[in-house]
Amino acid sequence: MEILNIKNLKKVYGKKVISTALKDISFSIEDGEFVGIMGPSGSGKTTLLNLISTIDKPTAGSITLKGKNILKLKGDDLALFRRKELGFVFQDFNLLNTLTIGENIILPLTLDNVDINEQERRLEKVSKILRIKELLNKRTYEVSGGQAQRTAIGRALINNPTLVLADEPTGNLDSASAKDVMEHLEKINKEEKVTTMMVTHDPLAASYCNRILFIKDGQIYNEIYKGDNRVQFYQEIIDVLSLLGGTK
In this structure, are residues 59 and 66 in contact, taking their beta carbons and an 8 Å threshold? Predict the structure, then answer.
């Protein structure tokens, strides 16, 4: 089943001096897919993420999530849509230092006045999946970067979103923590069927995806699928990036 449909998406910045970030992007994401977006700096991948996350609006084209045109949503409806349908994972975690790990995870539920027993039930499930149950009473500054990112993933998942959007989730992590975070994202995608779209410049992180879309100069340049061999897929990613002329 198709979850996300992007059609003829275009984004132009400026009036006197025109800068075209996205030219004519079209693709779709199926339920349960784990899709990576890669491309050089200035290719348009961050712009694409901002449009799908409703932070920005396109100049032309359509974005449909579960059959709903999200560009028509405004005000409270848009805020509710973002909270219920989308989960966000950021490079710098975006956790609140004044809250415990557990409180950070359930924050979206607290804002929605979800019953306390339901909050605890969901927290129990998510913390078990992400192996952070023993950290729930700790503060953000008492845990490692990898544990902080798993906390952020937990917060993104707590509302059972239709789509998780991850923006360079391993960007601030060392290689061991990055591998750990990606293994958890892969596990969640496979076992919990969480549809995920991730922007990354890291070929190793990208190798955990099912499919990679490469963007260059605001257009889709190439698309590759992972078979049974992740090492081979990693090499294919490296090969395409070398042709693109940049990995950032």
Answer: no
